[in-house]
Automatic annotation (TrEMBL), chain A:
<feature type="region of interest" description="Disordered">
    <location>
        <begin position="20"/>
        <end position="75"/>
    </location>
</feature>
<feature type="compositionally biased region" description="Polar residues">
    <location>
        <begin position="58"/>
        <end position="75"/>
    </location>
</feature>
<protein>
    <submittedName>
        <fullName>Uncharacterized protein</fullName>
    </submittedName>
</protein>
<feature type="compositionally biased region" description="Basic and acidic residues">
    <location>
        <begin position="36"/>
        <end position="57"/>
    </location>
</feature>
TrEMBL record, chain B:
<keyword id="KW-0731">Sigma factor</keyword>
<dbReference type="InterPro" id="IPR013249">
    <property type="entry name" value="RNA_pol_sigma70_r4_t2"/>
</dbReference>
<dbReference type="InterPro" id="IPR007627">
    <property type="entry name" value="RNA_pol_sigma70_r2"/>
</dbReference>
<dbReference type="GO" id="GO:0006352">
    <property type="term" value="P:DNA-templated transcription initiation"/>
</dbReference>
<dbReference type="GO" id="GO:0016987">
    <property type="term" value="F:sigma factor activity"/>
</dbReference>
<dbReference type="InterPro" id="IPR013325">
    <property type="entry name" value="RNA_pol_sigma_r2"/>
</dbReference>
<dbReference type="InterPro" id="IPR039425">
    <property type="entry name" value="RNA_pol_sigma-70-like"/>
</dbReference>
<comment type="similarity">
    <text>Belongs to the sigma-70 factor family. ECF subfamily.</text>
</comment>
<dbReference type="InterPro" id="IPR013324">
    <property type="entry name" value="RNA_pol_sigma_r3/r4-like"/>
</dbReference>
């Protein structure tokens, strides 16, 4: 079975570009409010020394990872 | 303890990083989760994990790569835990206003609807491969599976989506 279905991939990307071009709904917190909230949570977690339950990758793993495409988290 | 960087309110570049990556993160989180309420939680949890390691993310590329990886792994981890939980949060999320407002604008969210029909891991694999343009090896690394697994999942996912996209398109 083929790894890719070019037409479906093309269609997928076409819809994605249309989606990415649309304005997003307003977030519940502004950037400044979110950063303040995150810093408070980080301080609380660092203070309690609580281990995070979720799985988190090691930063060093990602430092060497390829960064391809322009549709990533920063776009 | 006061020297811990994550909680410090100072110009360490984190606020600027959040401003830069947040729109993309929100979009991808929405496509993963299928609704804005869950997506906002996922983005917050992802950025919190990034902040907790901020002092070790020395380059912008490292921070972006770590953020992407954390987004997908956190999503899959939360989905795994949700399966074993008695809470069926997804079906009962009360706050749908943002979804409805967004869905009402312009064309239908065909892409989101098609992705929603996929199992979580297939959805993540498809997004990494075809929307984030990562190769199979990098996708497998993020999803913590073998490249062959990525190939089989994307093949199955595309077959499902072909029907879905053509039905809706």
């Amino acid at each position: 079975m083929a790894d890719e279905e070019p037409e479906t991939v093309h269609e997928l990307r076409r819809h994605y570009h249309a989606f990415a071009a649309r304005a997003l709904p307003d977030p519940p917190l502004s950037d400044e409010e979110l950063v303040a909230e995150l810093r408070a949570r980080a301080k609380s977690e660092a203070g309690s020394g609580r281990e995070r339950a979720r799985e988190e990758p090691q930063p060093t793993q990602q430092a060497n990872g390829p960064e391809t495409g322009q549709s990533g988290v920063g776009s | 303890m006061d020297e811990d960087k994550p909680g410090e309110d100072k110009d360490d570049g984190f606020a600027q990083f959040v401003s830069e990556v947040r729109p993309g993160l929100r979009r991808h989180a929405y496509l993963l989760c299928g609704d804005w309420h869950e997506a906002e939680d996922l983005v917050q949890n992802t950025l919190l994990a990034v902040l907790l390691r901020w002092d070790r993310l020395l380059w912008p590329e490292a921070a972006r790569g770590y953020t992407r990886t954390t987004l997908y792994r956190t999503f899959l981890s939360e989905r795994r835990h949700a399966r074993w939980s008695t809470e069926t949060s997804r079906a009962e999320v009360p706050e749908r206003a943002a979804d409805e407002q967004f869905d009402a604008v312009g064309d239908r969210l065909i892409l989101a609807a098609a992705l929603r029909e996929l199992p979580a891991r297939q959805r993540a694999a498809v997004m990494l491969r075809y929307l984030e343009d990562l190769d199979v090896t990098h996708t497998a690394q993020i999803l913590e599976c073998a490249p062959a697994t990525v190939r089989s999942q994307t093949t199955r996912a595309l077959a499902s989506m072909r029907a879905s996209l053509s039905r809706q398109g």
